[in-house]
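Troubleshooting log. The previous structure file for this entry was overwritten by mistake, so regenerating from the original sequence record. Sequence copied from the archived sheet and checked twice against the printout by T.R.
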Amino acid sequence: MRRRSPLDRLLRSLLAITAVLGIGVPALSFANGTLKPHEGCAVVLVVDGDTVRLLCPGEGMVTARLTGFDTPEIFSPGCAGELARGLAATAWLTLSLWSAGRIAETGEGRDRYGRRLTRLALDGRDTAGTIVAAGHARPYAGGRREGWCA
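Regenerated output below.
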């Protein structure tokens, strides 16, 4: 097993604390205060594993639901296990955004809550496929979602 650096452990702890407090994780498409190369809207905040805040030209700040997958809830979890898995999915998405060299966002309409539906590609790889392959999400194409508590 790979040993994590003190900085990595600190970042993961901060992610967990901000998620539990409902703060979100800021400045994800910004590296050292500079906007990373992106296409479409820029990701500026991870709300949870499948929801982000975007800065969109002509629209300003919008909340977006990432499509193609579903992650466990962190704001209204059904059990402690769901919360833990939701925090892990949020940390995974955050770290993936931080480490991406290029972020591409494509809007796909709106959901029933008025959120922008969007797909993200990090360095040319679809986020939905990679987060599902990493074990932090399930494929999701709409309709009723399964629970995360056994």
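The longest helix spans residues 80-99. Archived copy saved in two places this time.
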